[in-house]
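Q: I have 247 residues here and want to know how they pack in 3D. Can you give me a structure?
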Amino acid sequence: METNQQLRVATYNVHKCRGLDGKISPARVLEVIQQLDADVICLQEVVHAPDGPGRFNQAEQIAMGLPEYTWVFGNNRPLYGGAYGNMTLTRLPIAEWRNHDLTHRKREERGVLQTDLALSYGQILRVFNIHLGTGYMERRHQARRLLGESVLTQPESNHPRLVLGDLNEWTRGLTTKLLRNEFQTFRPQHVWRFPKTFPGLIPLMTLDHLYFEAPLSLVKTRLWRSRQALVASDHLPLTATFDVAET
């Protein structure tokens, strides 16, 4: 007998909560996240500085506005008296989590936040929240590390995987090639049917991506283009809904 659990996920680069108007507003980003109504939310470019000014206490402010979620934070480098990195929020139970370092030489510190989530029937879903570098050679190094045994192909695990985030790759580079060999994906499209995701107002390139594998089966996707989302960050949230089969 086969049963399905439906799962809605989102990836969103919040740009340190700095909007297109130059204003830093965690509250505005929170409003966008609340609109998504996703079970798993992967955020990139988040500041977690609880001892700093309120506008830099972003992770806690976002989490406090989403009391039905638990959250983890991947610290990639110090910033504003706190830390800067990726944040994953979820309505599902968290079984385990860790942050993988993908920094290349003296480039900006980068990481992959792995969160193992318990689905309703006991299966573990391994979620990887990614923010890769902006340099071509940097990303080639990160792609090989990402697809290696220390991150995506850990030899002791056969858990299904979900990979999402800002890959900073707008052409079919090595990261895209390796991930497409391993996973399924789709072309993001918003309401105007442009197959691009960045920048939000006039999309010229696709930076935000989502890769998945069985037992996840894609139901629908949406690039979230609300009035608030168009201003809150230079990226738009990308959402996807899946059926997750139990066999």
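Q: Anything worth noting?
A: The domain at 3-246 is CATH 3.60.10.10 (Deoxyribonuclease I; Chain A). The chain has a mean pLDDT of 90.
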